[in-house]
């Protein structure tokens, strides 16, 4: 699978979840679900719990992740349930978004790139939404001290107000911060924004 620690970290995690048939939506995905309508692109979709649920509710979904375990699971469910859901395995370090979408999701993804790539991908997400379309973005921010998921030197913790600044001129529907305890007395601090393109 290559040397990217973040990708193997999550693939191992997903193998365990598939073996346990553990597919619950996380807190961020629950909040995002009502916003996933029309044509949806879910970048860094993980096991696809959100993408699958959106497709079950009638969205047409492209779900992208580097984890072979996750994408195989998504393709299996899409085939079993005849969903309009395409699972694509790709390293998003080198990926260009194709086409325009009504919703683009990146929950827990952009911090796994160096700053330049993280911001270029965020810019591309903004460019590939139709007017009236929604971006659902969740990132780890400064103050995060849990580093176990990161490839050393290959991550970017966003500034606390950076998402709000980068979505200036958009209609912001939700903007929130959450902090969660992590192993060895560390912490994960998240910012989430859901914003509509005017
Ligand atoms: C924190 S998980 C979030 C998964 C899902 N969005 C969720 O909310 O549960 C981060 C995801 O990003 C994916 N990822 C990390 N680096 C990636 C890369 N370079 N290319 C594609 N996916 C990547 C991982 O495989 C993992 O599924």
Radius of gyration, in angstroms, nearest whole number: 16 Å
Task: State the helical fraction.
Answer: 25-40%
Number of strands: 7
Low-confidence segments:
none
How many separate structural domains? 1
What gap, in angstroms, lies between the N and C termini?
40 Å
How are strands sequenced across the largest beta sheet?
A: 3-2-1-4-5-7-6
Q: Can you tell me the CATH class?
A: Alpha Beta
GO molecular function, one term: transferase activity
InterPro entries: Methyltransf_25, SAM-dependent_MTases_sf
Pfam families: Methyltransf_25 (PF13649)
Domain Methyltransferase: 40-133
Can you describe what's shown?
This protein has 198 residues and is of the alpha/beta class. It has a single domain (5-196), classed as Rossmann fold. It has helices at residues 5-19, 27-32, 49-56, 68-81, 115-127, 162-166, and strands at 39-43, 60-65, 85-89, 101-107, 129-140, 171-182, 186-196. It has a 7-stranded mixed sheet. Helix 5 links the parallel strand 4 (101-107) and strand 5 (129-140). Helix 3 (49-56) runs parallel beside helix 4 (68-81). The radius of gyration is 16 Å and the shape is globular. The termini are far apart. The model has no long low-confidence stretch (mean pLDDT 97). This is Methyltransferase domain-containing protein. GO terms for molecular function: transferase activity.
What is the topological layout?
Layout: H1 5-19, H2 27-32, E1 39-43, H3 49-56, E2 60-65, H4 68-81, E3 85-89, E4 101-107, H5 115-127, E5 129-140, H6 162-166, E6 171-182, E7 186-196
Parallel strand pairs: 1-2, 1-4, 2-3, 4-5
Antiparallel strand pairs: 5-7, 6-7
Helix pairs in contact: 1-4, 3-4
Bound molecules: S-adenosylmethionine.
Residues 6-7, 10, 26, 28-29, 44-46, 65-67, 70, 91-93, 107-109, 112 line the site of S-adenosylmethionine (SAM).
